[in-house]
């Protein structure tokens, strides 16, 4: 949801309902205040220069985007009532303590905090499943973070491949990293996707991603801090459908005829007698051909059949079998 509630609890609850209707399994908030994120200054590095959020201070942006803490409980309740998990991204220790009081089932660490080892250890010590976005992290930093959370008690870890650009370009997604990351860190891997559309997410699932995170809004036209790179309900429903299709299509390593192919198997080519043949007549290109359907001998035996003779009279349209040959 991020800040797409636009400071309206009614809209936040409507987002939960729309996400559930679209097929989401979970909804995630962000738990912070402007004061826990930064200082109330508007000069130098505290002033934002960014295509989406520029022209204001960091403090003003976070005041606009934050989800009031008293909203968390009703939002979580609505999500549970709609059959979804609900959890959050804490940005400091006080947020972790608050979320623990709400008995959240899991936590997520944002890319900008993935090197904040004290915060990571605090979250990991809860013993809850932990998702970590990997945006901007070097391999060394990521290794350090993973070691820290595992040593602090994290047993269920998901790393989310992420490009920390808003919106992100598909060419910068580098989702080929997903299977490498899975092998390197022996954990589940997903995609926190800031690209426009659903292509990167579907491709990520094909590479083994088991979690997809997307920003979600009721309507981009309504505006909001993250609306420009958020999916609308119909788009999110399409995402849910296509990533499920991609997941199911992965299947397993398989060769040969499947049960669902048995009817189609009949339409392979095979050897048929294409002219009436008398007993003792020689098989030639003129009276035997590889045609559909597939009830006769396989076409690979055609050179063996040529030169043989008919054991009996054979009518046109008879599938060839070994017992018809001398």
- In what range is the share of β-strand residues? 5-15%
CATH superfamily of the largest domain: Aldolase class I
Largest sheet: 5 strands, parallel
Order of helices and strands: HEHHHEHEHEHEHEHEHHEEH
Number of domain units: 2
Counting DSSP E segments of at least 2 residues, the number of strands comes to 9
Rounded average pLDDT: 97
Q: Give the C-alpha Rg.
A: 30 Å
Unreliable stretches, pLDDT < 50, 5 or more residues?
none
CATH architecture of the largest domain: Alpha-Beta Barrel
Shape: elongated
Q: Number of helix segments?
A: 12
CATH hierarchy class name of the largest domain: Alpha Beta
Distance between the termini: 76 Å
Offer a few descriptive terms.
326 residues; TIM Barrel; SAF_AFP_Neu5Ac; N-acylneuraminate-9-phosphate synthase activity; 5-stranded parallel beta sheet; 9 strands; EC 2.5.1.97; alpha/beta; 12 helices; elongated; Type Iii Antifreeze Protein Isoform Hplc 12; Pseudaminic acid synthase; transferase
């Amino acid at each position: 949801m991020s800040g797409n509630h636009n400071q309206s609890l009614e809209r936040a609850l409507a987002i939960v309902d729309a996400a559930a209707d679209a097929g989401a399994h979970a909804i995630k908030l962000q738990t912070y205040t402007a004061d826990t994120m930064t200082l109330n200054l508007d000069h130098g590095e505290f002033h934002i220069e960014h295509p989406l959020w520029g022209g204001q201070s960091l403090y003003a942006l976070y005041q606009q985007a934050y989800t009031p803490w008293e909203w968390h409980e009703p939002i979580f309740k609505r999500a549970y009532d709609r059959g979804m998990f609900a959890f959050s991204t804490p940005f400091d220790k006080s947020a972790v303590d608050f979320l623990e009081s709400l008995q959240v089932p899991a936590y997520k660490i944002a890319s900008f905090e993935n090197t904040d080892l004290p915060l990571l250890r605090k979250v990991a010590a809860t013993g809850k499943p932990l998702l970590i976005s990997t945006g901007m992290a070097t391999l060394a930093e990521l290794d350090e973070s993973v070691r820290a959370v595992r040593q602090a008690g994290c047993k269920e870890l998901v790393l989310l491949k992420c490009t920390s650009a808003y919106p992100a370009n598909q060419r910068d997604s580098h989702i080929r990293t997903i299977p490498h990351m899975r092998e390197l860190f022996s954990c589940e891997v997903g995609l926190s996707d800031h690209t426009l559309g659903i292509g990167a997410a579907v491709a990520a699932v094909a590479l083994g991603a088991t979690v997809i995170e997307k920003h979600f809004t009721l309507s981009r036209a309504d505006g909001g801090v993250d609306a420009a790179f958020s999916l609308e309900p119909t788009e999110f429903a399409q995402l849910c459908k296509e990533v499920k299709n991609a997941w199911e299509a992965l299947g397993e390593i398989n060769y040969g005829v499947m049960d669902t192919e048995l009817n189609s198997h009949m339409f392979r080519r095979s050897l048929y007698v294409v002219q009436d043949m008398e007993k003792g007549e020689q098989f030639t290109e003129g009276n035997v051909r590889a045609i559909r359907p597939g009830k006769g001998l396989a076409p690979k035996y055609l050179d063996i059949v040529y030169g043989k003779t008919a054991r009996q009279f054979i009518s046109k349209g008879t599938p060839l079998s070994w017992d018809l040959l001398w």
